[in-house]
Each structure stands twice: as C-alpha cells, then as structure tokens.
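Class, carefully examine what follows:
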Amino acid sequence: MTFTIGIVGAGQFSAHFASLFQLHPGVGAVFATDVIEGRAERLVTELGLAGTHPDLDTMLADPVVDAVAVFTQRWTHGPIVTRALEAGKHVYSAVPMAVTEDEIRAVVEIVERTGVTYMMGETSQYNPATVFARQKLDAGAFGRVFYAEGDYLHDMDLGFYDAYRYSGGDGWKATASYPPMWYPTHAIGGVLGALPTHVTSVSCIGVHDEQDDGVFDTEVSMFDNDFSNMTALFELAGGGSMRINEFRRVGYPSPIRESRFRWFGTEGSFEQLATTSLWQDKDGVEDVTARLASEPSIGLDDPLLADIAPSLREAFSSGHAEVHAEEARRLPREFDVAPDGHEGSHRFLVDDFVRAVETRTLPTVNAWVAARYTLPGLVAYQSALRGGERLQVPDLGDAPVAVGTGLPATTESV
C-alpha cells in the first residue's frame, strides 16, 4: 500500500529528494508547495509530480496527503514540523531538527504521544566513513573508543553565498549569519552515528568574523551572531570526548569532502582528510580511501543540478561507495537510475523514511536520535557566548522502543 507525500519548500535541495520519493514504489503521489511564487510549479513540471498546494495550511488540511517532507529555511523546521505532526502527517525533515530546546522537546513529545512518524534526514548517518566505523565497531576492532572528531568544513565562498542569495532574497545577509553550531548534525551525526552514546556537557569557543562583508555581522544578523568558525569539546556518556568543528571561513576544498571524521580506540583508529582515509592499529596502517570513495550517480550537467552552485555539484551528484554495498541491496530497483548525493546518503534516507511509514516502525534517525544530534550544538553556541563556559547538555533519552520494532502503543489510534 502506497502513501502520498507533500514537499514543503521547493528550493535547491528539495528536487533531489522529490525525485527519489517520486521513484520509490512505496509512494503513490508527490505534491509540492513553496512560499515563493513559481517554485513549486516549476518542480512539479520538471519532475512530473502530482500537483501543487497554494500554501502549507492547505497541504496540511488535505486528507489525500499522508506525509510531508520539509526543505524550508533551517530555522523554520521546528514550528513547521510540530504543525505537521499535530495535523497527523508523518514528517521527513531536512536538518537541523530545530533551533531551540523547546522546539526539540515539542517534536519528541508529539511523536511519543501520537506515534506519528518523524525522521530527520541527516546525511552523515550514511556517510561512508560513518558506515565504515560502524562496521569496525561491530567487529570489535576499535576496542574502546575514547575520543572522536567530526568536522563540517564549508566555506562561504564554496556555495553558501549562492545558496543564501537564492533562499534569502534581498535580505539574505541577515540569514547568512546563521550560527555554525546551530547546524551541527553533519559533524555530530557522523560521530554518534557510529558510537552508541550521547553528549553530557560541552565547552565551545567561537571565532568572531573579520571579513567585513555584511555576513556574520551582529548589526545585520537576524540571529545577532558574528561567529563564523566554532570549535566545541563535548563530554560523552560513559567516558570519553568528542571534538566538533563548524567552520564557514576556511581554506579547504569542501566540495570534495565537507564532512570528515576520526575515531580513536584502544585497539584501532580511523582518520580522514579531504582525499585520504586511513585505518590504523598497533600493527600498521591500511589505506581505505578506495573503499570509502563514492561514485557519481548522475552527470554534473544533469538538469536536477541546474540551481545548485557549480562548487557544490560534485557533492550533490555523488553515489554509493564500496562500504555501502551490503546495505544497498535493500534499496528499490527503481533507484538504480536515481540521483544521489552527500557521498551516497540520499537514497538510503528516503528508503528509511518510506519503510518506517509503511511498517509503522521507528526510522534510524528518529526524534530521539535527532535530538541527540542537534541539541548539543545549540548548547555549544550558548557556551561560546559565555566565553567557553562548560555547560551541561540535556538528554531526552532513548526512543521508547528499539528501531525497527514498532512505535508506541498509541500508534494504532493514529
């Protein structure tokens, strides 16, 4: 039995996922809506979707729409998601989950109360490095992991100026100052996507920007933020630590690899640079770069990439790596000709959500996992505002049931 999904926000990023939902055999129809005139209509025309809704309210009131996928401005996710969940719609949301602790708690509370499916589409969950680390951890090759690092290195010059102009209109500079630690999941999610733990405290340092171009300027910023680069040291439950870097002014080739990771254990370790990935133990070093390299899924001149900044097109067209091979067997054959992106993660994320809705089970990046990937960054930002003061990070706990074993008892009434 198929279900119908509505795309909320028809901008640069959404087309990749709209096309995947359109191809998935578990989805019967895909609609779209956007606050900017013409964008939803263009997406529907280019992909042959089922149609448009004039606004979010109309989409949420339509009984034909069973689920929504949210691709709006990053600071709007929390309120839109809670409205959709309360309307009884299953929700797939782009990152981040939300930008306040209250918004995060609201999403978790609604999901627990109603059993409606929520999933955050964190791409690092299927980053080849994270998949590789999960495999090594399952095999016991790390021993005890006591330290890890996650970096999201995305310079403003390499696509972000274009993206903010596209989505922000004349006032784009006010939105381009978005605090780096409010967008932490591409780094935190990659680390914790391999380690079964969570954050307990943080100390964070922010670098005040000196570019003087109206971005990361407190006189312009709608977020009153002038940190362009931030580094946080997190304490992990059960012992150990995790360092996270969120850099927006950095001399680094982010289109090649914007998220990179390291895990250090008592028996083995993994380290990654832009073009190199190494597994190391007490006997030596193994270059595993080829195993983690993602293959192109579509050509760089594909129409789906038309609105994507040229500096970002390689990341958005990347496909599966060798380490994905076993898990890729569960993907629908329709995806063989589908676009992919972020080192082969997009197809897995869409399939995760569709399967969760179909089977009424928790997706991998469910509300409780999403909270653990998002909330630490919000507290880290507060730490930086207080000069690096060490702050406790609230934890909303584990999901009430294991992933894949069903939703809370209230599900049957939804």
User: Anything to note?
Assistant: The longest strand covers residues 199-208.
